[in-house]
Specification:
Length: 138
């Protein structure tokens, strides 16, 4: 899992990544809930994109599996953008484009230090004890 993340910046950059994750997560959550409530999930593509979007939004808020969640956010927004005109849950093109760009930047930058990914998969300090003078046994 470490290969998915280049670094886990802390301080101001980590706070910036937290804000980006919150913005993308809230945007896709809002779009998904609006889509489900507007037509009751009557079409299966809108229902599927809405449920995936809600799951990805929660994962982005928590910072868990961030590259995967960002990719799902991008896919859901592209699904909303290219949904048939019969689906009544078309967010504005500007909102979709903005969410796609923010999710792409999160996927490329990583989750930051203020995330569950950092807690689970972050860098560890390995302490090697001093050598034992009785080793190797004679």
């Amino acid at each position: 899992m470490q290969r998915l993340f280049s670094t886990f910046p802390n301080g101001w950059p980590g706070l910036g990544l937290l804000l980006l994750r919150s913005a993308a997560g809230s945007a896709v959550l809002y779009q998904s809930v609006t889509c489900l409530s507007s037509n009751g999930g009557s079409t299966s593509p809108s229902w599927a994109f809405s449920l995936l979007g809600m799951l990805a939004g929660v994962l982005l808020f928590a910072g868990l599996l961030t590259p995967l969640a960002s990719t799902v956010v991008i896919a859901c927004n592209l699904g909303f953008a290219f949904a048939p005109s019969s689906v009544s849950c078309h967010p504005s093109d500007a909102a979709l484009a903005q969410t796609i760009v923010v999710a792409l930047s999160i996927a490329l930058l990583g989750p930051g230090a203020i995330s569950l990914d950092s807690r689970l998969f972050g860098r560890r300090e390995i302490i090697i004890p001093d050598s034992d003078p009785t080793w190797p046994p004679r």
